[in-house]
Design goal:
6 strands, alpha+beta, 4 helices
Length: 124
């Protein structure tokens, strides 16, 4: 079985080896530092360094989530916004309970308070 969680992107976390920062900056910070190390300090070609920098960012993010939740992360799936919508639809939607109605003119989000099932586009 798989479990998905949502951590608000502006959550401050203690990133192992980095310190306190917003969780949405962990991957990028480590990726950038690894690219600097490999390209600027070691003279590696950026296209060769990129996969290693991505891996370093992912590993640090996994450690940070495990540290925050006290749950061992056995596997990791990385999806974009389209993938999120498609997976949500494939699972038949997602049940949410809103404490208050949500109306956001720019995105068109318009949801009443209470329980409801959202499709992928709505959940996004």
């Amino acid at each position: 079985s798989a479990t998905a969680i949502s951590i608000p992107r502006d959550s401050y976390v203690e990133a192992p080896g980095i310190g306190k920062m917003k969780i949405n900056g962990v991957y990028g910070s480590v990726h950038l530092e690894k690219m600097k190390e490999l390209v600027e300090e070691q003279g590696e070609d950026p296209t060769v360094a990129e996969p290693e920098a991505q891996s370093a960012g992912r590993e640090e993010l996994i450690k940070t989530v495990a540290n925050l939740t006290d749950v061992t992360v056995d596997h990791y799936a990385e999806i974009g916004l389209l993938g999120f919508a498609l997976i949500t639809d494939a699972l038949g939607g997602v049940n949410v309970c809103l404490n208050a109605p949500v109306y956001e003119q720019l995105s068109g989000a318009d949801f009443p308070a209470g329980w409801q099932k959202l499709n992928g586009t709505q959940a996004l």
